[in-house]
Amino acid sequence: MREGRLSLDQVGIIAGRAGEGSDEHYAALARCATVNQLRTALKLEPRPEPDSRPKPEPERSVTKITDDESSCWRIRLPHVEAALFDACCPALKMAMTPSLSMKTKMVALVATLTG
Questions:
Q1: How far apart are CA 15 and CA 8, in angstroms?
Q2: Residues 77, 78, 79, 85: is their CA dihedral positive or negative?
């Protein structure tokens, strides 16, 4: 740019979009290319592969908040384990039904868990 070979727009496009280590290549191209041609060339440049490391599993947590009248549970599970928990929820709801006997509640829970 100091030598007057490249415009500010050309340098800006190269600086903003060129891959690491390719500045010299695009500077040489810019001597005979327009800003639009540089944009097109940079769009066609292969992008680096996304990080292929496996994502860490979501953290599991169980939180209980209790006041004078009740308790509130917050459970955080990975999706697969959450699906298992969801499958048990109908039996848990049945077990909390006040009109059922304790024996009926326990049978429902055991049947769900041993499935």
A1: 10
A2: negative
Residues 68 and 109 in one domain: yes
In a domain, 54, yes or no: no
* pLDDT over 90 at 95, yes or no: no
Write down the pTM of the prediction. Answer: 0.39
Write the pLDDT tens digit of every residue in 22-71.
777 877 888 888 888 888 888 888 877 777 778 787 789 999 999 999 99
Residue 15 corresponds to which tokens in the numbers above?
């600086």
**Sign of the CA dihedral with 100 first, then 101, 104, and 105 last:** positive
Contact (Cβ atoms closer than 8 angstroms) between residue 30 and residue 14: yes
Domain containing 16: what range?
A: 8-44
Residue type at 59 in one-letter notation = E
* Residue 97 identity (one-letter amino acid): T
13 and 39 belong to one structural domain: yes
67 and 103 belong to one structural domain: yes
